[in-house]
Inverse folding.
């Protein structure tokens, strides 16, 4: 699917400086070798302090989407890090919504990009994709065929199905699929940038967060009433943390059990989603139907933008 039509890819860098320049260049080469047009390569080397340019420069990436005559097919974040939150108060969400909403446009990224995705969903109803980024995924020395196939399938499938194995109990729920990086979601609590989703399916992932930090953030979402409005939680990849003797058996399974007990919500684990080499791509804000039967789990998504 990715090679049959030439796509226009626009790079943006709303977060941290891309310290792995070679990886980003490999990512550009991946798309170019497939015959796709890549614009905005200048953002790869751009730098101010720890950021991928000054706030004004990074805001200009979004202004370009408002000003350009023809929208790109895919808007892809170079990398995560920190920095997107600084931009939110200065963005013209009304104009972004008018330009981007209901267009066959794929905005894709994860990690720090979650802040931008939640703000777009909250402020103007723009659905985006939580998925691979230029440097870390498309620029990997050894590309993940799993990640690539799921990315292109999400970009082009009006009805998207994701299947995996889980230990959760039998389940059949529907709702808006939303979420992303848990640390970013917790940081947006109490701000206008976090959407209010009723009956939602909350999908979470993170990296370098110990189980107790993960539990603390989920309890924050519970105590402010966010989890009470959800139908289910899907736990993706939680990588990079190390348990010690002090934990004495306390692990992520302990976290999921506590959160389920406290909230009454089913926590469905096992989804390859997040900072791992293998990751699915999910449209945030799409309609979802989650089914668990035995160890088989299926998430069906629709209502998201797809490339023509």
């Amino acid at each position: 699917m990715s090679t049959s039509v030439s796509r226009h890819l626009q790079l943006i860098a709303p977060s941290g400086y891309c310290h792995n320049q070679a990886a980003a260049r490999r990512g550009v080469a991946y798309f170019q070798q497939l015959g796709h047009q890549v614009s905005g390569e200048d953002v790869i080397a751009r730098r101010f302090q720890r950021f991928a340019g000054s706030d004004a420069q990074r805001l200009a990436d979004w202004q370009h989407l408002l000003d350009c005559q023809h929208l790109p097919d895919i808007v892809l974040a170079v990398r995560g890090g920190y920095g997107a939150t600084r931009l939110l108060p200065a963005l013209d969400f009304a104009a972004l919504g008018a330009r981007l909403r209901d267009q066959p446009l794929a905005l894709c990224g994860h990690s720090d990009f979650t802040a931008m995705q939640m703000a777009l969903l909250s402020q103007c109803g723009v659905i985006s994709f939580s998925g691979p980024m230029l440097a870390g995924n498309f620029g990997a020395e050894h590309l993940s065929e799993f990640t690539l196939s799921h990315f292109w399938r999400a970009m082009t499938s009006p009805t998207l199905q994701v299947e995996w194995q889980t230990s959760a109990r039998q389940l059949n729920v529907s709702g808006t699929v939303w979420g992303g990086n848990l640390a970013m979601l917790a940081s947006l609590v109490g701000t206008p940038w976090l959407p209010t989703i009723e009956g939602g399916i909350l999908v979470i992932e993170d990296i370098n967060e110990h189980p107790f930090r993960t539990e603390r953030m989920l309890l924050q979402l519970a105590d402010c009433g966010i989890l009470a409005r959800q139908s289910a939680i899907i736990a993706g990849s939680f990588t990079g943390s190390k348990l010690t003797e002090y934990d004495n058996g306390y692990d992520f399974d302990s976290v999921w059990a506590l959160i389920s007990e406290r909230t009454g919500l089913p926590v469905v684990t096992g989804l390859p989603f997040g900072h791992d080499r293998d990751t699915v791509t999910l449209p945030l804000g799409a309609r979802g139907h989650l089914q668990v039967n035995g160890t088989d789990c299926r998430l069906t998504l629709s209502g998201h933008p797809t490339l023509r």
Observations:
- The mean pLDDT is 97.
- The CA atoms of residues 199 and 231 lie 5 Å apart.
